[in-house]
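Cross-check.
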Amino acid sequence: MSSQVWYVALVLLVVAARLVELAVAQRHLAWARAAGGVEFGARHYPVMVLLHSAFLVGCLVEVPLADRPFLPWLGWPMLAVLGAAHALRWWCITSLGNQWNTRVLVVPGLPLVTRGPYRWLSHPNYVAVVAEIVALPLVHTAWVTALVFTVANAALLVVRIRVENAALATAAGGPDH
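Predicted model, tokenized:
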């Protein structure tokens, strides 16, 4: 089997993981709304969904279109970074419990989470996202996708982190997590 077939399988595995995360987020959204949760930054959410969807398409398109090779010295370390990013994301999800979401939601009266990776980092989930956006395309040398979406994601994260910090400042406990 060619490395491109394995790469497509990897990208589809990431897509499946995203769909699981969206299902978790929907369940948490229902919980948050029932508990009086307020959403912040809803206007940028469709942009984020489009960016992340286009990123996955870019991974699938660039490799065959530009005939990108699998370079073991780059591909294997990037696969390890991708695995670490997914582990960090799930650590974030389990640490936040019902408070984790793909949307920015604040449930009044809940304390800010300071366990797990939130003990050391303000936005560890975004570290995982950045690592994934760099690593997944570079597993098969799709450097254009890695570059374009790293820049686009950085611009989105500027907005997203401002929104999240402002939302968390309204929550009991004040400082962001």
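The longest strand covers residues 38-40. The domain at 3-170 is CATH 1.20.120.1630 (Four Helix Bundle (Hemerythrin (Met), subunit A)). Passed to J.P. for a second look.
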